[in-house]
Amino acid sequence: MKLSLNWIGQFVDIDKRKAEELAQRVSVSLTEVEKIENFRGVDVVMEIENKALTHRPDCFSHIGIAREIACIERLNFKNPLEKLNKKKLTFPKKTLPLQVTLKEDNLCKRYTAVILKDIHINPSPLWLQERLLACGVKPINNVVDVTNFVMLELGQPLHAFDYEKIKEKGNTREIIVRLARRNERITTLDGIQRELKKDMIVIADLEKAIGIAGIMGGANTEISEDTKTIVIESANFNEYSIRRTGKITGLHTEATLRFEKGQDPNLTYPAIVYVIQLLEKYAKAKLVSSIIDIYPQKTKQKSVVINTQKITRRIGTEIKDTEIKKILKRLEFEIVEEKDDQLKLAVPSFRNDIEIEEDFVEEIARIYGYDKITPQLPTRAINPVTEDLERKNSNNILSILSFLGLHEIYSYSFVSEYLYRKAQLDHQKMLTIKNPISPELRYVRDSIIPSVLEKAEVNCRNFEEFGIFEIGKEIHSLSLKKLPEEKKKISGIYYSKNQNETFYKVKGIVETLLNHLDITNYQFVLQENPQPFLDPNKSAQIKLLIYNTTGNLYKSKVQMAKEKPTEIILGYLGNLNKEVRNNFSMNGCATVFDLDFESLLVNIPEKNRYHPLSRYPSLFEDLSFIVSGNLPVETLRQKIDEVDEQISNVTLKERPFYSVKFGNNKKSVTFTIEYRNSKKTLNNTETQFIRHKIIQTLKKEYQAQIRE
Amino acid sequence: MKNEIDNIYNQAISVIEKITNGEALEALRVEYMGRKQGKLTLLMKNIPDLSIAEKREIGPLINKVKNALTIAFDKKEKTLGQITNSENSFFDITLPGEKFNIGTLHPITQVRLQVEKIFQKMGFEILNPNEIDDDYHVFTSLNLPPQHPARDMWDTFWTENDLIPITHTSSMQNRAMKEKTPPFGVIVPGRCFRHEATDAHHEHTFYQVEGLYIGENINLSHLIGTILTFLQEYFQKELRYKIQPSYFPFVEPGLEFLVSCVMCDGKGEKDKIPCSTCGHSGWLELIPCGLTHPKVIEMAGLDPKKYSGFAWGMGLDRLVMLKYGIEDIRHFHAGDLRFLKQF
Ligand SMILES: [Zn+2]
């Protein structure tokens, strides 16, 4: 909002030359001054931010700001309202008829109107035009300019109708404030025809709407050059209704700006008196009615009891009662009663924002000065802070993934149908946004994968090989009545243009992550229903097996193998199928993974036990087998592991390989076997015996041939 | 001609055996197999003049010899090489080390972790907000009942079932007060949304850290002290601060916490060039804050006569942009590794 310092200077004795210093004080005590500008060498314009004044309708006027400045600067405030309220007007004997009817008095708190005749429509005097221009308002003619001028000075929006254009019936004319009728339309002053909604307040005559209340007048009663007789409207409308109408029509006029904050109903009278005065002088207008003033329910005087001790305690610094009282007086809060630290304050009608004692913390503190408060930290018992294990573990996950070479990305929670289609996913279960910015942001994602693929596509242009991941939320709308389920996921992709297989890279990343988190009992199994974007033959579900460890902590492998563990699905990984790769312009191989964050977190065990080091040495031996190409290596490895208690570890020594030497579709698999007995040193005969058992078992179960 | 070829071969083989250094070997290779004047090369140049029968015989023979000599030279080079390396081993410490590809965390994650750490050290707990929440938690419980004019201050997305992709992580204030026993301090980092078209300076998806402290006799000095302590810890320098009135219905008073610009140290310019970070003003408007409104405390089931508190919010995006001088906010969600690999 732009303010003229000349104008403010009429009410408070400020020094225009020290505008910068004034601006700094206004910034810390009221609202930020955004700009100080010289206006044509005759005035200084101060532009202030409106946001901090959202609750201060009184500050949308020069007198409101002048009152504040007087308080901040400890200067005298010359209030023009007093004079206007007391002004004696002489009313003519012969008047023109006008009846005002409020159909809905809760929508219109007060309606004040007057009729003026013999109007000479002319340009306004230069000084008045200058005031308007300084505030960024374009001068039009004396009638319009005067209504704008009074609004800028006092904060009361006004409107002028052409009296002759108001429907006459039975020798009288009537202004009715009512709700819009079904299918009612009006062409507003900006020339646009608008359809009215049924909860909009309109100003009407007996036959038609002549204005949208508090927003804009109608073209049908507009002042023209030939206008001789006008009706001035100075009214007060319900702020909620005005706000709603402003939003629906998209009309944010100067009037709306003030009305939607809730103007002081006591302003309508002095404002209309001021308009009469100015139009008598500058448009040769003559009063031709008394002041019609419909005010069904006078606003009550509000009062708030405050405790000055409590106020200073909340501010956190000592302020003397005399100082507090001085500030209150300057802000026009009247002390009605006083008892010890208790003050009963009468709230002026223009301060509709003041309701409770806490509101005075701000009033006192801002004028006293926030800069006078000494910063302090709260004190409390030094109880140890509970360690946030979830944070610790999730930070751990982040650093492991990045150390394994993946780059973290962020992508939007909102996705498009098109993106889902590219990823061969169904978009229909997703929650939709009613008011999206664009169709690309219409759905709330229930999978992170499509966004990850989209980001991979971006990077394929610049990089031949990379891995990215995102920790984000899947939103699953289970029922429209409830909050959706939010599932945190770790989703990522590894892409390589030149490597022909990236599956094992990603599997390695997942395994390393799990191992590092001390999650050990996991399994990769072929997915029965792989996600539609995956190659069904190259996708695996990641399962966590939870053994019941109550009772015996040192269960033997053989015992464990018999027990049926609880299975938890941690997620999956798999290669993108060819179509999806094409959809996202990927030329090489790409493997995605998707892990459930919560399942991971809750299953991270607390390491609280170690395996005693064996006092007897282990013996190591490599064994190679030739088996069918279709036999999963893990099946073989587990089988070996179960052969004997004294086999303490079985690991794959090298990648299996195929050769015609072994026969059709046969591969060679080599394991390193560790033999150990915790009670004695094993000798060769004993290991030979176990080895024989292994060879026999594999031969029997899988027709495996030992390779010498 | 055939004899000549045989001679060249025998000669070469016997000389190769006697060679003891690499330069001599290379000279010999040029002498026999050099592309212009090599003995074998010169012989090959004669081939076009031969009869067809001779061509059939000599051509393959020369090739055979050529291959044999190449192998001989290579073999000798290898043996010589091994001798050289082991005898005169120069250990080149300037060679690059083995390459490990290490990933990166998103800059907003990095700054979030930093902020969390500071507040954890100050005894604050961390809460996670919902990404989609209801009207009660996003607005009503924060003294913003339906139809409250100040709701316009937030540009809100709505889902088909009238839920809200959260406009601020203040959505956890009510829950925090219901769950915790004062005195307590929490921070809530999270992803927020505003209905706003995206350009270099605007994003519909952004990241906020909300803070809330509730206790007995909490006042403005505590609010100022806490925020100032955090900011000085974060920027690792002494900062001047300034407080301006603002308005948010869930605090009373509503304030804006400004600090001296960290780029120009509050001077408004650096090396006589106006500072663009603070728009020449020397101040950064960083943290909207205030004392928790008694209605907000009451709605969470606590007694506002007994308890008071303060709350603030700050943008992680802003902190990251300030730290690295990032000019375009769109980089954060572009997923472009050329950007992300720098952090
Ligand atoms: Zn600066």
UniProtKB/TrEMBL annotation, chain A:
GO molecular function, one term: RNA binding
Residue intervals of the B5 domain: 299-375
Residues annotated for Mg(2+) binding in this entry: D353, D359, E362, E363
Source organism, top-level taxon: Bacteria
Cofactor binding comment, as recorded: Binds 2 magnesium ions per tetramer.
Keywords: Aminoacyl-tRNA synthetase, ATP-binding, Cytoplasm, Ligase, Magnesium, Metal-binding, Nucleotide-binding, Protein biosynthesis
GO BP annotations listed: phenylalanyl-tRNA aminoacylation
Cofactor: Mg(2+)
Known EC number: 6.1.1.20
A Pfam short name: FDX-ACB
Domain (FDX-ACB) ranges: 614-707
GO cellular component annotations of the record: phenylalanine-tRNA ligase complex
Catalytic activities: tRNA(Phe) + L-phenylalanine + ATP = L-phenylalanyl-tRNA(Phe) + AMP + diphosphate + H(+)
Xref: PANTHER family: PHENYLALANINE--TRNA LIGASE BETA SUBUNIT (PTHR10947:SF0), PHENYLALANYL-TRNA SYNTHETASE BETA CHAIN AND LEUCINE-RICH REPEAT-CONTAINING PROTEIN 47 (PTHR10947)
Family: Belongs to the phenylalanyl-tRNA synthetase beta subunit family. Type 1 subfamily.
Subunit architecture: Tetramer of two alpha and two beta subunits.
Full protein name: Phenylalanine--tRNA ligase beta subunit
Organism: candidate division CPR3 bacterium GW2011_GWF2_35_18
From TrEMBL, chain B:
InterPro entries (UniProt xref): aa-tRNA-synth_II, aa-tRNA-synth_II/BPL/LPL, Phe-tRNA_ligase_II_N, Phe_tRNA_ligase_alpha1_bac, Phenylalanyl-tRNA_Synthase, tRNA-bd_arm
Subunit structure: Tetramer of two alpha and two beta subunits.
Record-level GO cellular component terms: cytoplasm
UniProt domain Aminoacyl-transfer RNA synthetases class-II family profile: residue ranges: 177-342
Keywords annotated in UniProt: Aminoacyl-tRNA synthetase, ATP-binding, Cytoplasm, Ligase, Magnesium, Metal-binding, Nucleotide-binding, Protein biosynthesis
UniProt cofactor note: Binds 2 magnesium ions per tetramer.
UniProt-recorded Gene Ontology molecular function terms: ATP binding; magnesium ion binding; phenylalanine-tRNA ligase activity; tRNA binding
Binding site for Mg(2+): E252
Family: Belongs to the class-II aminoacyl-tRNA synthetase family. Phe-tRNA synthetase alpha subunit type 1 subfamily.
Entry protein name: Phenylalanine--tRNA ligase alpha subunit
Organism: candidate division CPR3 bacterium GW2011_GWF2_35_18
Catalyzed chemical reaction(s): tRNA(Phe) + L-phenylalanine + ATP = L-phenylalanyl-tRNA(Phe) + AMP + diphosphate + H(+)
EC numbers, comma separated: 6.1.1.20
HAMAP family named in the record: Phe_tRNA_synth_alpha1
Cellular location(s): Cytoplasm
Taxonomic placement: Bacteria, Bacteria division CPR3
GO biological process, one term: phenylalanyl-tRNA aminoacylation
Gene3D superfamilies in UniProt: Bira Bifunctional Protein, Domain 2 (3.30.930.10)
Gene: pheS
Major subcellular location class: cytoplasm
